[in-house]
Every structure is written in C-alpha cells, then in structure tokens.
Design goal:
CATH superfamily of the largest domain: Winged helix-like DNA-binding domain superfamily/Winged helix DNA-binding domain
Distance between the termini: 34 Å
CATH topology of the largest domain: Arc Repressor Mutant, subunit A
Strand content: 15-25%
Order of helices and strands: HHEHHEEHHHEHHEEHHHHEEEHEEEHE
Number of strands: 13
Number of domains: 2
Number of helices: 15
CATH architecture of the largest domain: Orthogonal Bundle
Shape: globular
Largest sheet: 5 strands, mixed
Length: 364
C-alpha cells in the first residue's frame, strides 16, 4: 500500500470517483453521516457523490425529510438518513454531551433547566409547527428564559442530542426545527452492540482505508468503543500495515489506478469545506501534507476552505461568487497547473455550475 493507493481507494469508497449515487439519502446512508455546518457546502458534498443531482433536488430531499440535518457524533451539524437518526443519537450523543459539558456548566444548563426548555420547545413545535431559531428564542424569552446566541445554540443542540428535534423545511433562507417524532416515523431500535457494529462497518466501508484513530476522530467515540466495534466486524474488512499504521478497508478493494478517467469523471474535483474526504480522518496526509498558511484564507486551516483535488491530492483552494446568470469560480492553485490540469479543474468547475443550474465562469 502507498499513500497514492490510500487516496485513490478513499475516492472510490466515498463515491467521489467512479459510479455515484442517485439520491441524497443514498449518499448520506452510505457514508453514515455527512458533516454540514456550512449548509450550501453540505448540499454540494452530497451532489459531488451523486452526479445526476442538482442543488434543488438535494434541497427538496431535506425539505421533505428524506435527509435530516442535526448535531450528531461531534459538536457540529451532520446530514443523516431518517432511519439512522435515533440509533446514531443513542450511540454518540453521550460523547457529544461530554465534549460540550464545559459550555453547559458555564451557561448553567443543568438537567432541570434543559427539561424545562425541552418542554417549551416541544409545545411550540407540536402539530407540525416548524420554527426557526429566532422563533424558538422568542418562545423561550416569553417564558422568561434569556437566550443570547451562544446559549440558544446550546439549548437547541441539547434538544437535538436528546432526539427531541431535528431539521424541518427551510423558511426562506432560514433553517427550521421540527419534532423528531412528527418528522420521522418510529423505526426499529438498535441495541448498543448492534448500533456500534453498524456505525463501525459503515465508516470503514465508505471511508477506508482508515485507522482506528481516524474512526475515533470521525465518530466521537472512545478508542475502547472503536476497537470493540472493529472487533465485531473485522472479518468483513481487509487490514494492511503502512508506515507503521494499520489500515482497514472493504474487500474487494477498488482499483487504485489513476482516477482521471474513472467512469468518465474528471481527474479534478472541487470539494466543499469540511468535506468527508478530508475532515473524516485524524491523519490527512494522504490528501495533503504541509500547506503554508499563506496559501489558505485568513483562518489558515485547510478544513475551512473549499479545496481543489487532482488525483486525490489537494492542490489549491477555490471560492464561488453567485450572480444572477452565472457562478464565478475563482481557483487559487498552490503551484502552477499544467494545461491538462487546468482543463480538468475547469471541467470540475463546470460540473459544479451544472449542480446549481448556472453556467460557470472559471478564473484560474
């Protein structure tokens, strides 16, 4: 196994390269969850893996509840499949609550307080009522509960983690919340071991080759939990040691050849920020090594940037400007691109334009 093979297998296993999916739910179900705190970028992360879909179709799936957006696994939003949300929360929410416990204590969000806010939120949302975050704040304020932005964020997050609420359809440009019991019919509950095995299987099947450390980072679980989950499903996987680390991935392993002509897909991809191809691993050296901070935006972290991928390797960043009749894509490579590389980056930008139903003007 080589670094290039790891990168190319991940491209295929995540369905960025090769055949894609046909529905948004298929994408998030395969990956287990898709990080999506940047809402438009989260939709593109789905569209990147389902070439026939448009932004409107992904939006419609979220509006209809075919895909849900909630806090799960780590203290951030993810897109998940409705049938997975309850067992995912039951398995991972305890760890998220540990991660945010200092915030909760500082804001005096103890169990009694959250029980009260849960009741108020539940009453406000009953009967298919979908409220935005400011509207929920108004409900709490009317009950005498102050809600500065950070406090409100934590109150709503706790309600998500307790599987009380999840995303509803948008109101204009604002996200709404809905009662989970009204949004998603009851599904068969998974016992703890069953849920742990299922999440472990999905991660290594869709994100492998990956290590236990990678899985711990992605899932938010403890190392002991991760090892226990792997023990349950390891006969379904291949393991290989590279550079002193044990990688696990599905069998049979996909082709590790050059991805530039896989299923007619371009060899370059425009990844959104926080894309699973980068964010889902503790060790990201298969996608990029050291990138000088001055090559990135003012925040200096590659995760915060939309990235340009060629043959599995991050070679630059990009940003978009939406206009009435076009989307302008400004690409900033870290080094000069060859003519052929420029062509595949342009093709990738045009694909993003098709996702938005807009012609793409590319600035390289």
């Amino acid at each position: 196994m080589t670094t290039n093979q790891i990168a190319h297998q991940r491209l295929h296993n995540q369905h960025i390269a090769g055949p894609g999916f046909s529905t948004p739910a298929d994408v998030v179900r395969w990956l287990g969850a898709v990080q999506a705190q940047d809402y438009p970028a989260g939709k593109w992360a789905v569209g990147l893996r389902a070439p026939s879909l448009s932004d409107d179709e992904v939006e419609r799936a979220i509006t209809n509840g075919e895909v849900l957006r909630t806090h799960v696994m780590r203290p951030t939003w993810h897109l998940v499949a409705p049938e997975d949300i309850r067992w995912l929360q039951a398995l991972t929410a305890p760890r998220v609550k540990v991660a945010i416990s200092n915030w909760a204590r500082r804001m005096e969000l103890d169990e009694a307080f959250l029980a009260r806010t849960h009741i108020l939120i539940e009453q406000a949302l009953q009967g298919g009522n979908h409220l935005t975050r400011p509207e929920i704040a108004a409900v709490l304020n009317q009950a005498g509960i102050p809600t500065d932005p950070l406090r409100l964020t934590n109150i709503v997050m706790q309600a998500e983690l307790d599987a009380l609420i999840c995303s509803g359809p948008r109101k204009g440009h604002e996200i709404t919340y809905a009662l989970l019991e009204e949004r998603v019919p009851q599904t068969r509950p998974l016992a703890y071991d069953e849920a742990l095995a299922e999440l472990t299987r999905r991660y290594f099947t869709s994100h492998g080759p990956a290590t236990v450390k990678d899985f711990v980072w992605w899932s938010g679980l403890t190392t002991a939990q991760a090892r226990s989950g792997l023990e349950m499903i390891k006969t379904q996987l291949i393991q290989e040691v590279f550079d002193g680390k044990t990688y696990w991935f599905p069998e049979p392993a996909p082709s590790t050849g050059d991805t530039s002509s896989s299923a007619g897909a371009p060899g370059a991809y425009l990844l959104p920020n926080y894309d699973e191809y980068i964010v889902a691993y503790a060790d990201r050296t298969a996608a990029y090594d050291d990138i000088p901070a001055d090559k990135l935006d003012a925040r200096g972290n590659v995760l915060f940037n939309h990235t340009i991928l060629i043959n599995g390797w991050v070679v630059g960043i990009w940003k978009r400007t939406l206009k009435k009749a076009e989307v302008v894509i400004e690409a900033t490579p870290f080094a000069s691109l060859s003519e052929s590389e420029s062509q595949v980056v342009t093709a990738a930008a045009e694909r993003y334009g098709r996702f938005l139903h807009l012609p793409a003007t590319v600035k390289l």
